[in-house]
Amino acid sequence: MCYGYRLLLVFLLLASQLGAAQTLYKSPAPAPKALQDSVVRLQRYARLGRLSTVERLATYLLNRYETPLADRRYYLQEESGRFLLDFRLPVYSLRAEARQYRGALVDAEADLTQALRYAERFYPYMSSSNGFFEKLPAEFLRDAYYQRALLRLEHLHNPAGGCADMATSYQLDTVRTSSPRWRDCKLPGSRAPLNTIELSAAKARWRDSLTRVPLLLQAGRLARADYLLQQLAAGQVGPYVRVPPLDEGPVNLTYLRSEVARRRGQYARARAYLDTLLALPNPAPLHRYALGILKIDHLNDRAGGCEDLRWVYTHDTTSTAPTHPRWRGCPMPAYRVAATPAELGAYATAYMDSVNHARELTNSGQMAQAVQILSRLLHARVAGAYIQHPLAGYSSSPYPPDNPYHNLRAATFTARAQAYVQQQEYRRAVADLDTLIEQHHWSRTLTTEAYCQRGRYRLDYLHDERGCDDLYRCFERQGQPVGPDPWRGCPQAGWARQKNRAASESNVTFRLGGLAQGKIGGVEVGFQQHDGGTGEWGFNHGPSLELEALAKPLIVAPKFSYEVEYYVIGGRLDFAAYIPLGGPKRAVDLRVIPQAGASLLGVVNVFYGYALPLTHSPLDVLGRHRVSVFINFLKLTKFGG
Q1: Band of residue 56 on the pLDDT scale cut at 50, 70, 90
Q2: Predicted model pTM
């Protein structure tokens, strides 16, 4: 019995540890409440002077949370209203103070160094809707550097390190105090920008300095250009230091540093800069071109350089010939990626010309050549002198609207299906139409003819009864059967059912909801007829017939309504006849109820209404105020459809 009890305790202990580990490594939740409380308690102990307790608690927190969990940002608010980006910043700083008090000076210096390492990650500033202002970690850096400077100067006999920390603290200080505070250290003449005006001025200087570098390169002043780039990389311009770079500043700065290194004969350094740029997402052709030229001209790697230049040539938008000296005599590919609007237009024109030529070959009996051309368009995506742009298949593409990419692909599948039929490859023809319908199901225009062709091919050649369903869809979309022998032996009654089903799906919506009318509640059900093909998500309107049922006493109300919803707002006007089935009063209560309220894309609605009686004897139990919550089961692929 005792042995089983111990096993149970061990099992519970392991389960708790496993749960803690899963929470520690996988939970995306913010900092645990226990950690927040511990940091606040640590700060309170420091204010009370209980430094030994501060050191013990700080050590426990740093050991307890020395995991990937600690690398996440914790927004812990101090009493001053400022926020810390990492809980370890104040913990290391407070433990350093406690260790310095008991004489562990080296350990205190190590704690401050660790805290500064974390704080430098988030420098220089935080911004908010109120504009630019100094906040942590800039403020924390200033105090921590000053604290470590005093420790080094007064206790560790390290004047060089102490004065370096004093200089950094001076650059971040917003108040210029008297000289004794800085312990006679030599202070720098530059400082960090401390407000919005200074930051704007510093960024303008940074931009102007970066613009000067190409001019220095043209003038051959390589040493001056290299020095200026080093200053910019360190965030120093004019009287300011720690200036954050512009959005594209680091990329342009790195490329210019590679150019300076290449011109000064430092080829390994130049390649390191370019490799850094090419490791970024979507590298620029200019950077890969520079790497290719560097490999060919200076690193004796012609094969690798030519590979880079070939990639650049296919993605380059300039109109240089493959034999241009710019390409260093490397064999260039025959086709380029269509990138500019003009090139995309030329690609679309050449693509459609190829499709039309394939159709002519099919009509003349040269089906094999037609299939080869169309397969090349679908798989190699080559037309004319260009290859399809990677983004040409997406709606965000700059593809010309008069030649959309989807129309070209659909025309290619249709033409190849016709060629396959001429070759008696009927299953391949149906497979192409399957792909067309699957990839373009969202387009009624592109898929209508595909349904017609697939239905005929299935019935005429494959004897597949599913062809009747395709013909029903085709005729329903065209409005009537087209051509000789349109039915192919399919029962016409199926077409009538298809039309009725399509009309029902397209034009009628079912509604279900609940309501409170005065002091009693109930439910409502109904159907809404959509005029003009509405009933989509976002915009929905049309008349409806509904039935309400209210309890205690039992009251039913047939009603006629007209309803409109537009994304997040909606309204409805009801004409209702309330008929009491219980209670002493049997008179019919006619009411007009205008309603308005909030809507979620026309699907979920919350309306408030005020009833206006049309009879002289309204039901006493029914109040004037009404609240209803209901769902519209909108058509097709919409919610509930």
Answers
A1: very high
A2: 0.54
